[in-house]
Amino acid sequence: MSPETARRMAELSLETGRQLGLLIDRRGYVTHVLIGDRRSVFIPDLRLFRFSPGNLRGLRLVHTHLEPGGLTKEDMTDLLMVRLDLIVAIEVRPDGLPGRTHLAYLVPSDNTRWTTEVYPNPHEMRENPLALIELAENQMRQQITGIVTEGVPRVMLLGITGVSEERAEESMSELKELARTAGLEVTSTFLQKRSKPDPRTIIGQGKLRETSIDALDQAADTLVFNQELSPSQLRAITEETELKVLDRTMLILDIFAQHARSRGGKIQVELAQLRYLLPRLVGKGTALSRLAGGIGTRGPGETKLEVDRRRIRQRIGKLEKDLAHLTRERKTRRKRRGADLTPIVSIVGYTNVGKSTLLNTLTSAREVAEDKLFATLDPVSRRLTTAEGTLCVLTDTVGLIRDLPPELEKAFAATFEEIGDADLILHLADASAENLGEQIVTVEETLESLALGTIPTMLVLNKADLVESTVLPNLRRRYNALTVSALKRESLGELLGEVRRRLQSTQYPVPGTQEED
């Protein structure tokens, strides 16, 4: 900046008793003039000035200080959080002239994240700030771990321990797998020892700032919380960090949206998303231009936020009608299926335990079976035929998960109804899972909550090939379960025999039973 500009800023700052600041871009143009109070200036919303991983904001802040002492803690927080190119503080002398000048930029020095320099006055500072900015960005790129892939969001996962640290760690591992399924690159995880979440920021304001700075250092542009965030928490955290913020429910909804294939699946996912979005609309950035509406649809004095909310409610109403129609169609299909007196066996279990793989192996079907969470969203039914004839209709269902968001449970009620027609439930679990017991309990509790606990259930431990042979007998005895490997057809003989035996007690004829013989 020119000597005249520095002198004029100092004069006006002394005259008004306020700090004054300029935000300057890399071409040297002033983009903002800032007027603060005696102790600080307030940086405006800079989301239009985006920065990519390994790069700074493209803006430098030059501002006055009415009191000696150099750069403040708030200045350094702005430098780190806002990702300013650099920050300069000019002390205003009693005679109104610019005095000692302090400079800071993001190059690590003396066990800090930044380097500071002091000059007698602004005229003796370095003439080329772009060299410092280039040095800072080169340092930032060296700190980034892993490969930064264009178009792949990099995220930091955050959570609190609550009353059980072990359970919290398992839940964070599950959150990491959810992020991988959603196509996100996880840079790091942060689990804070805290019995109760902070009512405003979950992990506390101080920790939130620290982790946000760490996320920026790792080129992460998104924070993912393991807890469901209330509308006020979502707003507070976003304003505090300027990063994109997601919670566990948003992540699961996104995965469901990616995997929805059928009309029914898409309806249920969109309905769950809109129900979750509605109370979280806060006005800014909430325009829903793809939804219907226009001239003649809004009342006098109605704000944009109210219009958005009304459009969402209208869309929810339409989707609920479509879902009710879909439910009736499914009931009709189930009645037709049951008319031929063929027993129905539903495969139920935690997500990613191998339900679709088991269906494919037993029925020679070709349904999608991926090593991802929630790969199946729509119920799939196939006839299971043996040498003796059709044994049953085998149905694959959507996977369950701990703390399933209420919006999803409500939206997928039509899918869960499919289980209610079953004569036998195959509860499939992952024998190799570290939290096997918790997964089994989660599924059992979900079945009870859906009033399906009275249907005969058989527990089957899958992925036996991933468990040591000496451990398998103990698992069988402990859970009173069969063990199989869904990928290996030869391991399914005992399962088929047990299914046949259990179905003999039903009202349906089962091929190859002793009665027929």
Keywords:
alpha/beta; 6-stranded mixed beta sheet; 517 residues; single chain; elongated; 4 domains; Rossmann fold
Question: Can you tell me about this structure?
Answer:
This protein is of the alpha/beta class. It has four domains: 141 residues, no CATH class; 101 residues, GTPase HflX, N-terminal domain (Rossmann fold); 65 residues, no CATH class; 164 residues, P-loop containing nucleotide triphosphate hydrolases (Rossmann fold). The chain is 37% helix and 19% strand. The protein contains 15 helices and 16 strands. The strands form three sheets. The chain has a six-stranded mixed sheet with strand order 2-1-3-4-5-6, sandwiched between helices. It has a six-stranded mixed sheet with strand order 12-13-11-14-15-16, with helices on both faces. Strand 15, helix 14 and strand 16 form a beta-alpha-beta unit. The chain starts with a helix and ends in a 14-residue tail after the last helix. About 4% of the residues have low confidence.
Topology:
Layout: H1 3-16, E1 20-25, E2 30-35, E3 59-65, H2 73-81, E4 87-92, E5 98-105, E6 115-119, H3 129-143, E7 154-160, H4 165-181, E8 185-192, H5 205-217, E9 222-225, H6 231-241, E10 244-247, H7 248-259, H8 263-277, H9 304-338, E11 344-349, H10 355-363, E12 380-386, E13 389-396, H11 406-411, H12 413-416, E14 424-430, H13 436-449, E15 457-462, H14 472-479, E16 482-483, H15 493-503
Parallel strand pairs: 3-4, 7-8, 7-9, 9-10, 11-13, 11-14, 14-15, 15-16
Antiparallel strand pairs: 1-2, 1-3, 4-5, 5-6, 12-13
